[in-house]
Specification:
Blueprint: E1 6-7, E2 10-11, H1 12-34, H2 43-60, H3 65-83, H4 86-91, H5 99-128
Antiparallel strand pairs: 1-2
Helix pairs in contact: 1-2, 1-5, 2-3, 3-5
């Protein structure tokens, strides 16, 4: 039996750090490449920063893993929920009028859901293996 939860060969804290970095870089790249002057193009980065920090704090303070993982997943819910805004533009008839924004929303919804599912698996693993 393994000593800790892992997904794609990474522990949940390392996965959290990676996901946070991905979001930070995504916001940076999309904002620069699209030439956007809107602060909303940086939303993935704004969501990624606390996720990244929570993952980093989990590595630094392993005794607080539960706390920082819950914080990261709470922010992950925001990523997923924010990404669902794409449905407003789809049903409002303005989908792909701002492609960078719509692609970012889809990315947030998909990766946010993925992150939440992996986090739930991690929490379930921890609960099942709590006494070992």
């Amino acid at each position: 039996m393994q000593n800790s939860f892992s997904y794609l060969g990474m522990s949940f804290p390392k996965l959290t750090i990676s996901y946070g970095l991905f979001l930070i870089i995504w916001g940076l790249v999309v904002s620069v490449l699209s030439g956007s002057s809107s602060v909303t193009s940086w939303i993935p980065s704004f969501i990624g920063i606390p996720i990244f920090l929570a993952g980093l704090l989990t590595v630094i303070f392993p005794a607080r893993t539960k706390l920082f993982s819950h914080i990261a997943l709470t922010v992950g819910v925001l990523a997923f929920a924010g990404g669902l805004d794409v449905f407003r533009t789809i049903f409002g008839g303005s989908f792909m009028q701002t492609p960078a924004a719509d692609v970012s929303k889809v990315m947030l919804a998909v990766t946010g859901l993925w992150y939440l599912l992996v986090g739930i698996k991690s929490f379930r693993w921890a609960r099942q293996n709590r006494n070992q």
